């Protein structure tokens, strides 16, 4: 890490606030695949190649989604500090590792903005892998969650009962493939299970094992873990597919921004979300999910949503100092 701070625009505390907020973003297996460079009033979100998942995410789609989510959190924390922001995706052809460049504009310390108001939800948001309560989420809340994704260029498509049934069949096929995919399971062992201080998904955050087949992803892929309990899960949860109009790096980054905006709005209403992305991680199965949402849309994530029936454990994060490459 190179740090230069002769008369910096941003104070040490402000840089810490921005990067700590970015780090609360979700990423596949909590790899936290981001690095940052701060140059004057510009913050670059960079890909960390050492934190990618070549076996489970060969295209880099899920990694890009994580970078987009981190970039959205930067905008939220900047808004909380009173800064206007604009952004550019893939801003420098000579620096393909820069996924998003965020420009901080004028500062209005006394201004309250809807974006800045989401700052209080950053550390409340957690991926919830436990059973859901039977209480229905009001349609007005679902509408706000959907609108949040749309603001960032994504679309949340809530599945009806028939589509959820078809998705269940796809999920079962994906789970079978996963159990026999040695490369994926070996790679996952680096990031999932056990006690983890700074990265990955510890056993405590895996959630209970379902007593019957359920629409929930078991990241342990069937391996016994004595730290996990078992529980009865809901039979038919709310499920949405997050889609984008294009399926390229820009679309994936936009999907991450749309995801995080919708997750923070959901959290503000105490709605929790987990992911069923195994249905689209296999190229042979992704078209089956696309059939459920229409061929003009590209499925990027599958979300299971509702009110929690129990508490969710926290996943660890690295210190922001460990993610800062340059400050000048």
What does this structure look like?
GO terms for molecular function: oxidoreductase activity. By secondary structure, the protein is α/β, with parallel strands linked by helices. The chain folds into 2 domains: 2-125 and 319-327, NADH Oxidase, CATH 3.40.109; 139-306, NADH Oxidase (3-Layer(aba) Sandwich), CATH 3.40.109. It has 9 helices and 12 strands. The strands form 3 sheets. It has a 6-stranded mixed sheet with strand order 1-12-2-3-5-4, covered by helices on one side. Helix 1 packs across helix 2 (61-80) and helix 2 crosses helix 7. The longest helix has 20 residues, at 61-80.
CATH topology category name of the largest domain: NADH Oxidase
The CA-CA distance between the termini, in Å, is 11 Å
Give the amount of beta strand, in percent.
15-25%
Succession of helices and strands: EHEEHEEHHEHHEEEHEHHEE
Mean pLDDT: 94
Helical amount: 25-40%
CATH architecture of the largest domain: 3-Layer(aba) Sandwich
User: At the fourth CATH level, what is the homologous superfamily of the largest domain?
Assistant: NADH Oxidase
Number of helices: 9
Number of domains: 2
Low-pLDDT segments, ≥5 res = 2-7
Q: What is the level 1 CATH name of the largest domain? A: Alpha Beta
Main pleated sheet: 6 strands, mixed
Radius of gyration: 19 Å
Which structural category fits the helices and strands?
A: alpha/beta
Strand order in the largest sheet: 1-12-2-3-5-4
Shape: globular
**Count of distinct strands:** 12
């Amino acid at each position: 890490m190179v740090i230069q701070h002769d008369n910096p625009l941003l104070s040490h505390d402000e840089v810490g606030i921005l990067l700590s907020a970015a780090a609360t973003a979700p990423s596949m297996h909590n790899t936290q695949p981001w690095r940052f460079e701060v140059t004057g009033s510009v913050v670059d979100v960079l890909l960390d190649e050492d934190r990618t998942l070549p076996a489970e995410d060969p295209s880099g789609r899920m990694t890009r989604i994580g970078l987009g989510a981190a970039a959205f959190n930067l905008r939220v924390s900047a808004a909380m500090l009173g800064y206007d922001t604009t952004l550019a995706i893939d801003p420098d052809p000579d620096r393909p590792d820069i996924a998003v460049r965020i420009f901080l504009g004028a500062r209005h310390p006394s201004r309250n903005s809807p974006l800045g108001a989401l700052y209080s939800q950053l550390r409340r948001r957690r991926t919830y892998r436990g059973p859901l309560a039977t209480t229905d989420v009001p349609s007005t809340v679902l509408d706000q969650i959907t609108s949040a994704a749309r603001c960032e260029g994504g679309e949340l498509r809530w599945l009806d009962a028939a589509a959820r049934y078809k998705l269940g069949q796809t999920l079962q096929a994906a789970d079978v493939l996963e159990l026999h995919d040695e490369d994926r399971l070996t790679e996952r062992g680096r990031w999932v299970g056990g006690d983890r201080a700074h990265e990955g998904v510890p056993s405590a955050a895996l959630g209970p094992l379902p007593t019957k087949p359920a629409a929930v992803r078991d990241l342990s892929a069937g391996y016994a873990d004595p730290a996990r309990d078992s529980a009865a899960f809901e039979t038919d949860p709310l499920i949405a597919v997050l889609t984008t109009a294009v399926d390229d790096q820009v679309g994936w980054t936009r999907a991450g921004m749309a995801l995080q905006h919708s997750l923070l709005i959901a959290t503000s209403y105490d709605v929790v979300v987990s992911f069923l992305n195994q249905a689209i991680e296999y190229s042979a199965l992704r078209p089956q999910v696309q059939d459920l949402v229409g061929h003009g849309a590209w499925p990027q994530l599958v979300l299971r949503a509702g009110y929690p029936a129990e508490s969710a454990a926290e996943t660890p994060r690295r210190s922001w100092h460990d993610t800062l490459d340059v400050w000048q």
